[in-house]
Amino acid sequence: MTINTTVLQTPIGPLALLEHDGALVGAGFTADPAELHARLHPSLRALELRPVGDLGAITKAHLAYFDGDLTALDALPVHHPASQRRERLWRALRRVGPGQTVTYAELAVLAGMDRTAARAAGQACAQNLIAPAIPCHRVLPSGGAPKGRLGGYYYGLERKAWLLSHESAVTGGRPDASAAPAPR
């Protein structure tokens, strides 16, 4: 069994995509899929990498996202083994629509947890290995971007800022009407 990989060129640099059994198991802004593979769950790290030219629907969805179809990644199947709590946070994060942002505390609430689980939400974002399909770039610290604070992003704040700007430009700065409303 293998993990199929490809690297897309995007406006913010190379994006490695890793697919296994029809699901996206890794996506990150690096030209080296092995770098991402090394961070995967042990059950996936045991699988060999196999470079391919195209991952079909997964490749098409990512290209569409960068071309302005901000919902193109929403239906992609993802597989990111973790604790039930962390998986719940990632599922909630996928409901935060393009053009929307939430704080870590708000993400915890969206996942059915108490606001005090903000730290767990932050850790889930830090351990997210499927960016931008699991859109951790949409999570800001309390006070958010208006105060010039984007928080952290594994692939650099420049990429986080670009992704937020890309989504805002396409949505006209308005939240996607099909997305779950962010609690305030």
TrEMBL record:
Pfam family for this entry, one: DNA_binding_1
Entries under InterPro entries matching the protein: MethylDNA_cys_MeTrfase_AS, MethylDNA_cys_MeTrfase_DNA-bd, MethylDNA_cys_MeTrfase_DNAb, WH-like_DNA-bd_sf
Gene Ontology molecular function terms on file: methylated-DNA-[protein]-cysteine S-methyltransferase activity
Reactions the enzyme catalyzes: a 4-O-methyl-thymidine in DNA + L-cysteinyl-[protein] = a thymidine in DNA + S-methyl-L-cysteinyl-[protein]; a 6-O-methyl-2'-deoxyguanosine in DNA + L-cysteinyl-[protein] = S-methyl-L-cysteinyl-[protein] + a 2'-deoxyguanosine in DNA
GO terms classed as biological process: DNA repair; methylation
UniProt superkingdom: Bacteria
Keyword entries, A-Z: DNA damage, DNA repair, Methyltransferase, Transferase
CDD domains listed in its UniProt record: ATase (cd06445)
Ranges for domain Methylated-DNA-[protein]-cysteine S-methyltransferase DNA binding: 86-168
PANTHER family with a match to the protein in the record: METHYLATED-DNA--PROTEIN-CYSTEINE METHYLTRANSFERASE
Protein name per Swiss-Prot or TrEMBL: Methylated-DNA/protein-cysteinemethyltransferase
Organism: Thermomonospora curvata (strain ATCC 19995 / DSM 43183 / JCM 3096 / KCTC 9072 / NBRC 15933 / NCIMB 10081 / Henssen B9)
Classification of source organism: Bacteria, Bacillati, Actinomycetota, Actinomycetes, Streptosporangiales
